[in-house]
Design a protein that fits this description.
229 residues, alpha+beta, M1 Pyruvate Kinase, Domain 3, 3-stranded antiparallel beta sheet, 24% strand
C-alpha cells in the first residue's frame, strides 16, 4: 500500500521580489492534522479566487516530478524538494499519468476525491527565480492535482493512501490536461470529459467555454464530394 510521505501546511507570507502575499510556503507537519471541507487546519491561501475552497481543499504533488524539474533546471536543482511547490501531500507512486478525475482515495481517517489538475501560475517562477518554470510545468503536466473532501478527519505522514473508487470510463489528469490544451481538440471528447464524476464546476465551465469557442471559430467538417464518373 502507498503511504503519505509528508503533510504540509503554511500561512501567508510575502513572495519576493515584489512581496505579493502567497500561501506557497509550506512546512512539514510532524503529527496528525485535521482535514475539513476547506482544507487542512492551519493552512491558508492568499488569493481565494484561484486557490483553496471546497473544490481545491487539498493539493497533492508527486514526489517523482521533482527529478524532472531538477533535470530541466539544473542550476535550481537543490530547490526542487518535496513541499517546495506548496503542496499539502507528498507521495511516491501516483502521478498525473495514474490519477484520474473523480478518483476517490482514503487517507487515514479521511476520504477525498480528485476534482481537477492544478493550473500553474507565475508565483512558481518567482519562488524559484526561474522565468521558464511555469511554462515547463504546464507543457509537461507536472503541476499536481486538487481534491475535494468527502469525509473529513485527521491525517498524518505514514497514513495509508488507497484508491477506493474509480469511474467506469476513467480520464487521467494528463489526458484531460493535454486534450483541453490541444490546438484543435475533438469537441465530442471534451463534452465527454465534462461529464466526469467529481470534476470541479470551474473545469466544467472551462470545458464548456472551450467547446463553444471551437464550434464558433473552426469550420465544420465537410462531407466528401462525389464527382461524376
Amino acid at each position: 500500500m502507498t503511504r503519505i510521505d509528508a503533510v504540509y501546511v503554511g500561512g501567508i507570507r510575502p513572495l519576493p521580489p515584489e512581496g505579493h502575499p502567497s500561501g506557497i510556503f509550506k512546512q512539514e507537519v510532524s503529527g496528525p492534522v485535521r482535514l475539513g471541507p476547506e482544507g487542512l487546519e492551519g493552512d491558508a491561501q492568499a488569493d481565494r479566487r484561484v486557490h483553496g475552497g471546497p473544490w481545491k481543499a487539498l493539493h497533492h504533488y508527486a514526489a517523482e516530478n521533482y527529478a524532472r524539474l531538477a533535470a530541466a533546471f539544473p542550476d535550481k536543482a537543490a530547490l526542487f524538494v518535496p513541499g517546495s511547490f506548496g503542496e499539502n501531500l507528498s507521495t511516491a507512486g501516483w502521478d498525473e499519468d495514474t490519477v484520474c478525475v473523480g478518483d476517490v482515495f482514503r487517507i487515514g481517517a479521511a476520504t477525498v476525491q480528485v476534482s481537477q489538475p492544478r493550473q500553474p501560475c507565475w508565483k512558481l517562477n518567482h519562488k524559484f527565480g526561474e522565468e521558464g518554470l511555469m511554462r515547463f510545468v504546464a507543457e509537461h503536466c507536472v503541476a499536481g492535482w486538487y481534491y475535494r473532501v468527502l469525509a473529513g478527519g485527521p491525517i498524518a505522514a505514514g497514513d495509508g493512501f488507497a484508491l477506493v473508487e474509480r469511474a467506469a470510463e476513467p480520464v487521467t489528469l494528463r489526458h484531460l490536461w493535454f486534450t483541453f490544451r490541444a490546438h484543435r481538440p475533438d469537441t465530442d471528447e471534451l463534452a465527454q470529459m465534462r461529464e466526469a464524476p467529481g470534476l470541479s464546476p470551474n473545469w466544467v465551465q472551462k470545458l464548456d467555454e472551450r467547446i463553444a469557442w471551437l464550434k464558433q471559430n473552426l469550420p465544420s467538417p465537410q462531407p466528401p464530394s462525389h464527382g461524376r464518373g
